[in-house]
Amino acid sequence: MAPNDTARARPVTAWEWVLRVAVLAASAVLLWEFVTAGQLITHNLDALPFHYAGALAVHVTTGAQLLAAGALWSRGGRGPGNDRTVLLLSLGAFVVGFPQAALGTYGPLQAHVPLALLLVSLVVWSAVLVFRRRSA
Description:
- The chain has 136 residues and is mainly α.
- The protein is built from 5 helices and no strands.
- The two termini are 15 Å apart.
């Protein structure tokens, strides 16, 4: 039996489920942001309140993701370094969301869009790590 087989054979914990739900919620909100941003690019300004609401939801969901990742990491989690990586990615997503949103309102879109892509990358990378865990 390989050293990592026992870690992979354990069932998914409650905090892992909370983290999975938070990552899925953050991913869904970011998808919403892409849809409403597409409407704004086509000069449909009716989508602006929905895009603003989505920005608030990004902060809430990445904050929930960060809290769940922190709780999982503090409990020892499952893999050496994997929980810490998810925690750091979640922290990065939460932190990047604020200047990204501010630049969308008060700054150039040339900075807003690349930060949005970075934010999506951080959340998707977290999702990949969280869902790669195997349950019994």
